[in-house]
Specification:
- The protein has helices at 12-43, 46-72, 87-115, 122-142, 151-180, 185-212, 222-230, 266-280, 297-302; strands at 4-5, 237-245, 251-258, 284-290.
- It is α+β, with helices and mostly antiparallel strands.
- Strands 1-4-3-2 form a four-stranded mixed sheet.
- It has two domains: 9-212, Cation efflux protein transmembrane domain (Alpha-lytic protease prodomain-like), CATH 1.20.1510; 222-302, 2-Layer Sandwich (Alpha-Beta Plaits).
- Helix 3 (87-115) packs antiparallel against helix 6 (185-212).
Length: 303
């Protein structure tokens, strides 16, 4: 006997809000990439050009995140019985990989520019980068609420917030160049930008790869779940416990409970599912009850 429990925290209105957030964020960033690349070329600023390349990669990342967010809302089908929520993990993972490629390009060009530094137009650099602080700040704000419960949305938020800080760094580079005239500042700031991107991307890469390999979500303490189940009245043993992410915002669990006194009934199973959802945010629960008359093969392997 099994029981299933589902919970979808995103309402239709909530989803529409993030659709608008993605649309506005992508539009603003595409326009800014064009402006930043043009003035980076005009002012011969590697910091602006590298930041434009980074922002372009973030546009691609936002597009993938939006695609994953859309696919996760599609209903399960005969071919995809769990739905397509895993697309959000893939979007977060590809987002991180794209950023790593962008980091490599920035570092390569910065090292070359350090060998042959050139002067920049500090006033133009400062103006364009200041616009970037505003645009990236607004975009990050659009995803601020979603970053608490969804790794996919968290990736969008972290990248935009990091971009705002990076653009602020470019403003500082322009100001320092005007003040000192040091031509090496521009590529040096580019290397700092690359390091900032790496630091913000590493956690996203690690967590998205972990979830893609069916790892236990970071929010779940597996021993706590096991202890809760083992201490339920009538439960003699717990085995074949699995917890994994169906998407970046939905967690699933399957478990076998050995109950020698017999099946406890559907109400008992539903109460377990409700408790797991309330206490551990596990939205999809499947419980198999065994009376112990015939040892489960999986239990024998676990032992």
């Amino acid at each position: 006997m099994t029981t299933h429990h589902h919970s979808h925290d995103h309402s239709h209105h909530h989803a529409e809000n993030y659709d608008r957030a993605f649309a506005v964020g992508i539009t603003l960033n595409v326009l800014f990439v064009l402006v930043e690349a043009y003035y980076g070329w005009r002012s011969d600023s590697l910091a602006l050009l590298s930041d434009a390349g980074h922002n372009l990669s973030d546009v691609l990342g936002l597009l993938m995140a939006w695609g994953g967010f859309y696919l996760a809302r599609l209903r399960p089908s005969q071919k995809h019985t769990y739905g397509l929520g895993r697309a959000t993990m893939m979007a977060a993972l590809f987002n991180a990989l794209i950023l790593l490629i962008a980091i490599g390009g920035i570092v390569w060009e910065a090292i070359a520019r350090l060998s042959h530094p050139v002067p920049i137009q500090g006033d133009i650099v400062m103006l364009v980068a200041a616009i970037g602080v505003v645009i990236n700040g607004i975009t990050a704000w659009l995803f601020m609420s979603g970053n608490r419960h969804d790794l996919n949305l968290r990736g969008a938020f972290l990248h935009m917030a990091a971009d705002a800080l990076v653009s602020l760094g470019v403003v500082i580079a322009g100001a320092l160049f005007i003040w000192t005239g040091w031509t090496w500042l521009d590529p040096a700031i580019s290397l700092v930008i690359a390091l900032a991107i790496l630091l913000s991307t590493w956690g996203l890469l690690r967590h998205s790869l972990h979830l893609s390999l069916d790892g236990v979500p970071a929010s779940i303490e597996l021993d706590s779940v096991r202890n809760y189940l083992a201490e339920l009245p009538g439960v003699g043993a717990v085995h074949d416990l699995h917890v994994w992410a169906m998407s970046t915002s939905e967690i699933a669990l399957t478990v076998h409970l050995v109950m020698p006194d017999g099946h406890p009934g559907d109400d008992f199973l539903c109460s377990i599912a409700n408790a797991l959802h309330h206490d551990f945010a596990i939205a999809h629960t499947t419980i198999q009850v065994e009376t112990g008359d015939r040892p489960c093969v999986l239990f024998a392997h676990a032992a």
